[in-house]
Design a protein that fits this description.
The protein is of the alpha/beta class. The chain has helices spanning 2-8, 21-28, 53-67, 73-81, 99-106, 144-148, 151-156, 208-217, 242-253, 282-290, 376-393, 399-408, 427-433, 499-502, and strands spanning 35-41, 85-87, 92-97, 111-116, 119-121, 131-133, 165-170, 184-189, 228-233, 239-241, 267-270, 274-275, 294-298, 310-311, 319-324, 339-341, 347-349, 354-357, 361-365, 369-373, 461-465, 469-470, 475-482, 485-492, 495-496, 513-518. Helix 12 packs across helix 13. The protein is elongated and about 85 Å long. This is Serine protease.
Length: 523
């Protein structure tokens, strides 16, 4: 009978391509044990719905497709009742089927593909610094990684991500941590099948999720302390499944399952994936973008070899984030491009898009503690939080405008490479590209027009606040610091006003600035 079914469905023809190789091998081996599969249906955007209304269109399309399955609807409905899940963001369902049932579904014209539910995990760092610190070791002053990207200058102008919702998919969150109290809007846990875990309360199954959450919205360690989180636990113990992640993604986008209410994430931070390219993540990311949500994903810790990025961070339209060390150089572990896509996307692309500090980063740990972790996992929430600050500063900004502002203000000055992309992000510069001015070196006023620039060493004139680019031509004497404590030197054609650039911090915990004066008196 099996051989007849194989012949009937034409497994050597086009229909065989809709069943994954792993499932096909099980059919041929007469393995009839139920297995978790993803059934992906054809996607159509015929109604051209945009924004959050696209979620309603996606749900409607999936329900219509399931209703049109005909004779196969019987065992599909049975499987749905036994733990199946609707993954409307991907126009698919998770079902537990025998390989032969999966084969039968794969022959239907409405089915594009059937494949096994695969594992997704945190990108591990081989030589990461991982240690738990006591609550007494909470950082004092502004942490170096946030100063390195210019966060204090945005905060000084009152820009801290207010009104913005960040989707956070990770190992969970300790919402009672002092850094995170009052920052959690909603929490949900999902199982490997993509079903929501009933009665689950906010908790962290490991420590990674609380750490990344702190970098997003932490009171003292977060870049967007006035933004709020919608947090999905999709990686229990650091590992989950594709169905689990997609269920979490669609939930953070629309927590109440009602597209008419605007309660979902504006930007999504994910530090997870798998090496190489994965077509399965492409449609969910495209649908996220279609809704006007910014996807900010780690590119992985599979470096230093070229071509080592992971999905979904290496999807061309996603904001892929790499990690740099305390000197602003690409971290040894950070994944590099290029990435070659063949399938849902065709072509070779430069990745990552941008970079942020990701070596020995201090943030919150469960139980009111603090800890140090390294990875692109830490760089991604710093970038996602920066995007939240940008959104809060200029509500209504489009995804392309936000991405371009982020890219063109980064440290590589508009050029892109396969190590750090456009370079380390510069939050004040990105805000400036959006038309949100924080300070002017010539006029000497803040965004409100009331605050004068800080005073520097005698004979020097103010150039920029910490985290920005001090631009000039020729050779000049330069200084960096605050409150009467400065580092000085001589340089040519500009420099970045950061601790990383100078290699030392003259006034730890204080917001600093940079100053210049002509190397030789003007005749």
């Amino acid at each position: 009978m099996l051989s007849g079914l194989l012949a009937l469905t034409g497994l050597t023809g086009a229909s065989a391509g809709r069943l994954s190789a792993g499932l096909l091998d099980k059919v041929r081996a007469h393995d009839n044990a139920p297995t978790g599969v993803i059934v992906r249906f054809g996607f159509s955007d015929a109604d051209n719905a945009q924004g959050r209304q696209s979620f309603k269109a996606l749900r409607r399309q999936l329900k219509n497709t399931l209703a049109a399955l005909g004779p196969k609807a019987g065992f599909v409905n049975t499987a749905m009742k036994r733990g199946g899940a609707e993954l409307w963001l991907y126009q698919s369902v998770y079902l537990k089927l025998s390989p032969v049932q999966a084969l039968q579904l794969s022959t239907l014209p409405v089915v594009d593909e059937v494949f096994e539910n695969f594992k997704v995990q945190l990108p591990k760092v081989q030589a990461s610094t991982v240690k738990a610190l006591s609550a007494a070791s909470a950082p004092t002053g502004t942490p170096d990684p946030l100063r390195a990207v210019g966060a204090p200058q945005a905060w000084a102008a009152g820009l801290k991500g207010s009104g913005v919702r960040i989707g956070h998919l990770d190992t969970g969150i300790d919402a009672s941590h002092p850094e995170l109290k009052g920052k959690l809007m909603a929490f949900a846990e999902f199982d490997a099948n993509g079903d929501r875990v009933t009665g689950s309360k906010p908790h962290d199954s490991e420590q990674h999720g609380t750490h990344t959450a702190g970098l997003l919205v932490g009171k003292t360690v977060g870049i967007a302390p006035e933004a709020r989180l919608i947090s999905a636990l999709v990686l229990p113990g650091g590992e989950g499944t594709f169905a689990q992640v997609i269920a979490g993604m669609q939930w953070v986008l629309d927590p109440d399952n009602n597209a008419d209410t605007d309660d979902g994430a504006n930007v999504v931070s994910m530090s997870l994936g798998l090496p190489g390219t994965s077509d399965a993540f492409v449609v969910p990311v495209q649908n996220m973008l279609r809704a006007g949500v910014v996807p900010v994903f780690a590119v992985g810790n599979f470096g230093p070899q070229p071509g080592s990025t992971g999905s979904p961070g290496n999807i061309p339209d996603a904001v892929g984030v790499g990690a740099v060390d305390t000197g602003g150089k690409v971290a040894s572990f950070s994944s590099r491009g290029p990435v070659k896509w063949s399938g849902a996307i065709e072509g070779s692309f430069i990745k990552p898009d941008v970079a942020a500090p990701g070596v020995a980063i201090t943030s919150s740990f469960p139980g009111g503690k603090y800890g140090v972790l390294s990875g692109s996992s830490q760089a991604a929430p710093i970038v996602a939080g920066a995007v939240a600050v940008m959104m809060g500063a200029k509500p209504g900004s489009s995804v392309p405008d936000l991405k371009q502002a982020l890219f063109q203000s980064a440290s590589n000055k508009g050029k892109k490479d396969n190590q750090t992309g456009y370079g380390v992000i510069n939050l004040p510069g990105a805000l400036g590209k959006l038309g949100v001015a924080l300070a002017s070196g010539s006029a000497g006023t803040s965004a409100t027009g009331q605050t004068p620039p800080p005073t520097g060493p005698a004979g020097y004139r103010f150039c920029v606040l910490e985290g920005q680019e001090c631009k000039f031509s020729g050779q000049k004497q330069v200084a960096f610091g605050a409150a009467g404590r400065y580092l000085s030197g001589l340089t040519t054609d500009g420099f970045r006003c950061t601790v990383a650039e100078w290699g030392s911090d003259p006034v730890p915990g204080k917001a600093k600035a940079c100053y210049i004066k002509d190397d030789k008196p003007t005749p």
